Amino acid sequence: MVTVLFCDLAGFTARSDRADPGDVWALLRPYHARVRREIERFGGTLDKFIGDGVMAVFGAPSTHEDDPERAVRCGLAMLEAAQELALDVRIGINTGEAVVAADQHRSEGVVGDVVNTASRLEGVAPVGGVLVGEATFRATRGLFDYEPLAPVRVKGKAGPLPVWLAVSARSRLGVAVEQAPATPFLGREAELERLRRAYAGARDEAAVRLVTVTGEPGVGKSRLVREFRAFVDAQPELVAWRQGHCLPYGEGISFWALGEVLKAQAGILEFDGPATVAAKLADAVAAAVEEPAERQWLEARLAPLLGLAGEGTARTGTPEQDEIFTAWRRFLEAVAARRPLVLVLEDLHWADDALLAFVRHLVEEASGVPLLVVATARPELADRSPGWGRDPRDRTAVVGLDPLSDADTARLIAAVLGRAVDQDEAHATLLGRIGGNPLYAEQVCRMLDDRGLLEGDGATVRLTAADTVLPDSIQTLIAARLDTLPPEGRAVLQDAAVVGTVFWSGALFAIDGRDPAATEATLGELARRAFIRAASRSSVAGEGEYAFWHTLTREVAYGQLPRTARIAKHRAVAAWIERVAGDGIADHAELLAHHYLTALELARAARAAEETAALHGPARRFLVLAGDRAMTLDVARADVHYRRALALLGGDHPERATVLEKAAEAAQQAGRTVEAEELLGQAIAASRPEATTWAPGRRWPARPGCSGTGARPPAPAAWSATPSRCWSGNRRGPGWPTPTWRWARRCGRRGGPRRRSTGCNGPWTWPGG
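Above: the chain's sequence. Below: its structure in token form.
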């Protein structure tokens, strides 16, 4: 079984007929060299060049289990190479059986219908497209985004052939926006070599390694990871690179980074609906795991990471959390078993304790697979977790980034300015002020250029004006650069900061009703001036996606917004998220809660009574929904959300009983039984305001349709003398009420605050009652 790729230059024959043979060869030589390199990089064999045509074979003479995937990745890389060479190509790929000659270097080394069909597919492929046949599509549909096209008729085939256009490899570029760095990589070779060795060790020993890259803001953590990514991409083996980042909202959003990793693996877009998310998750699990029973078990425990209903709760240190962590670990092990897996977790200093606990579990328990975890963090991570990254068994390491040397900083300045720099007193003063921070150096140079303060000729530049305008901190420096922007550019950047480090054009249109064409032009100018960068593919269908080059830029831009102006902007962003999320809104509940709650707190501080009243409802709604989502991920986080929601509910609010009951369940799951009983008592009182007080130990009277009586919990609460429903049990434990007080009969689950004294039909008993 082989996969055959044909690539041909579009319109080349007509051009070459009129061109000098020397010019033709000058055009073909770099093209041939580049496509040969791509074929060999993905483990294929160059079968032949036929003028401007290329035939490559994957699966002969060396066979890999993922040859169809290698061929499609090669085809997409060829498209990028052709664009760089200003050429147009069309590519056809087909998978099937073939006869392979013993001598692969002679003509017609691989023959068969698969070769003929691949050639025909190339002939009907659109210019700038990779067209694949059915067998290739079925083997790779979980790994790439495809666009189905109308069946095509080709010579030699009786009927039309189903075909698909390969669009891109599945990944979420909003997590790691890919763009070539604008400055050279300097002064970090030793640190990069440590990452290379860690990867080689994980790959060669089929072992798990954790490397945490630490350093102050702007010192180059993200740049080091990008250089390491380039190294991984250049390896002969296919490597799964998955990346997630922790959000700076309060104490973080439960397992957000891990959810991004799972979405990238499954090819899930940011606002896919629940049905689409579930289908893609099932495909991703099926691609990694063969056993049907294990697939079902994994899907149920991975689903909460994507905002879907799942099973279990993640209370720290409990068997339930151990089971969930085990499921997540086993899925990552299954992915790594197919090929080396590099798992990148950015800004781990913003992670909540539950995510840190999972990373420890993963590193300590995973084995037998090539898995490298790379985390980036500011030094404060060591304050939160003093022993982080230090393991006596050499599975973990910490790579600290020190400031650049003066020599490297000087080379960086010259590279940013594109000219040699006079080594005068002003230059030495500038080096001292920069202090080896590469982001500071880059921002200084761009600010001087923006303000027209660079002196010199076309070959050299003098920095004599730098000392008069140089801010004391990098934040002040970034603010000074923002001041050089025209008003519209600064406003767009500030609005983008409200959305987040990664943002979408549609959100910007929604904030102030901006003209799309004018906004896109402004975004292009901001990208040119290195404030933001564009994603080559968006994680939101139909929306342009961008990211700030550095988190500090976003922080400064956001800080420049008047506090009162932030209210309407957070509301507008939240409304946009609600609109585009549709049925998948549960997966974004914590983001929505963040935006609405921030707007509410700002409105309160501004004493804006009308806006405060309008924001109470949505803030409360999404805090509760965020708590519901967190219950299967991080009970402690769910408890925080429910308590914040309760703080927004008056004593007589009709939803108070429901939220109290949810808070009671969170307390019970966290092992705080007495507190859970008190909250439950408050829920009962809130739900039945006409109730009378029950004394501890008093029994519930039997009710029609009920098989027994129950004792009153020893909590300060009231209840009607004639409740309309009796208490059975549900998944929360025997006798635990639901918001509607309807009970599904089920024997008790361990850990509940109350138990039945005799089987399912006996009376309920309460502690102390």
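The two ends are 72 Å apart (CA to CA).
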